């Protein structure tokens, strides 16, 4: 017998419902639980030169999207409420490794449990940050760590991978451990959320991360505003390992998109304040982009510019162009190019073609 992803997922869902029903003495037809398997695989081939580095030919994962798989489920609790959970793991299809990079944890994308109700959703665990969601939703290359200028400016810097010399970028990562989040229901397109992450270390109760965001989603216009504060990266007291003497970081970001159907415009502005033991420095970042339907595919273009005041006194300029062509509802192929430049360092560039399959 030939099995497909859809048929296997149905078997998992049906089996989970039947087991739950049997456990609670219910008939399978009355079961109110579900379990879903989902994810995507993305691989690309091309070449990359980091700013200040040398060119390397690559066959790698995560060209337009980082590869991952996940399990999520819910159980109806009555009165419009449900218990929910999700376990999501990045992986590297080029070598079979787990995590989005060597050394990453297993369920690094999401790992949480919570309650969903008419009054909002409360989740606890390892949670994707509101800043990351805002960053990916309002640029045409979405969550691409390879080709999105805004993702590069926000998440590839400040002492993290890769190793070019910069004091720009976000601390705290794209997901927080030991985090609690409340998300409001949607009211006429408006929604909001707050998140708090603890350091979980004795004598370090002041180690924290917190953020808040407000989002509007309309048929044409969408917008968001998010604020994030952190005083540790992965564990209390570790910001100084990113930049000597760094104590805390605050980030404010706004994003807009406007969809005219024949072209969709994207814009973002981000202000970052890094506070050291003595003094501070500020980084301003802007991004503009478009997504244009072209044939059955989509042409994407984006530019980003960052400038710090104090610190290393750097500017960073990046520009990308790409084309995404769907082969089916679940599979697409793409080609893209990124130019990346810091002042006082040689320019970087990345180009390649890839394929992405969703399940």
Automatic annotation (TrEMBL):
Superkingdom to which the source organism belongs: Bacteria
A Pfam family this chain is assigned to: Porin_4
CC annotations in GO: cell outer membrane; pore complex
UniProt keywords, alphabetically: Cell outer membrane, Ion transport, Membrane, Porin, Signal, Transmembrane, Transmembrane beta strand, Transport
Localisation: Cell outer membrane
Quaternary structure, from the entry: Homotrimer.
Name assigned to this protein: Porin
